[in-house]
Write a structure and sequence with these properties.
By secondary structure, the protein is mostly helical. The chain has four helices and no strands. The longest helix is centred in the first third of the chain and has 16 residues, at about 5-20. It is globular and about 30 Å long. The termini are close together.
């Protein structure tokens, strides 16, 4: 799985696992996941997101530095999954 299909599956997983109020189609590939300018998720959401990514996509995130880079937006998550595949 890659490309637009992968990005859509990531968004669906985020909405389901994090119980977001948005529909997957309302989440842009490049909107920041954390912070006030984006989806506004917090550290508890980050933990759930890491668990969800491992459960659904087999993506293991080893440390907080990698997490900051990978969990920036849907696009950065998708690139990391594609790289690991």
């Amino acid at each position: 799985m890659h490309g637009e299909e992968l990005r859509q599956k990531i968004k669906e997983m985020m909405v389901e696992e994090l119980m977001l109020d948005q529909a997957p189609s309302e989440i842009s590939d490049t909107i920041p996941i954390f912070g006030s300018g984006g989806l506004g998720l917090d550290s508890v959401d980050a933990l759930q997101l890491v668990v969800g990514l491992e459960k659904h996509f087999g993506l293991k995130i080893g440390n907080s530095e990698a997490a900051k880079r990978i969990l920036d937006c849907v696009e950065s998550i998708a690139r990391e999954i594609e790289k690991a595949a």
